[in-house]
Amino acid sequence: MRGRRHDNRGVAPYPRSLRVNQVVRRVLAEELERLADADERLRLITVTAVDTAPDLRHAVVYLSSLNEDAAEGLAERRPQLQHEVGRQTRMKRTPRLEFAVDPAVVAGGRVDDALRRIRDRDGGPEGPDAAPPPR
Questions:
Q1: Does residue 127 have a pLDDT over 60?
Q2: Structure pTM?
Q3: What are the Cα distances from residue 49, in Å, to 25, 28, 41, 73?
Q4: Which one of 27, 40, 73, 77 has the minimum C-beta count within 10 Å?
């Protein structure tokens, strides 16, 4: 029996769900890029993934970052974004959008911070391209 994977994004294993997630992500990314010209709160927001519920009533939109100003701007523009998803796709229902920070991006940031602390503590090289210490 196949079920939903239990990773941070909850990507569904079904081809239709994957296609819906990809289409919604593309539409939202393009629309946010367009809206960023008019609303500076929406600048520097990257849509990393979308997880749409099987009944298509709800979708979590994962973003690379989400500060308070951006969250406020997204909340104001949510109806417009939902309308655009409905206009550009052929779905029976347009999912209600919820915005969240991508947990994978957060985890990656923590790993980078930990590696930076280790490098600074050990006085190691400045990066992966740094020359090895002389022998």
A1: no
A2: 0.68
A3: 6, 10, 20, 19
A4: 40
